[in-house]
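User: Structure please.
Assistant: Input sequence and predicted structure:
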Amino acid sequence: MPEFQNAAKCLHCGDIIVSRYRHDFVTCSCGDVSVDGGAEYVKRSFMPGAQWEEITTEDELLAAQEQANRKEQETAQEDHA
């Protein structure tokens, strides 16, 4: 069984935020979405209209991070072209 992750991806700024332990309140860079609770509990705080993608397994977290890295590399290449 995959390891549980208390994480989310903000669909506005693209940040992947992870709460790793109890009371670890983490907010994305644009301030739209926050995660809290680590493995103890799952709590989401968000601004009205905010959109996010839930990430609940280590596999999903790794896939989301890889996708973000690829997008960042593509953007850097376009900036240099």
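The first strand starts at residue 4 and ends at 10.
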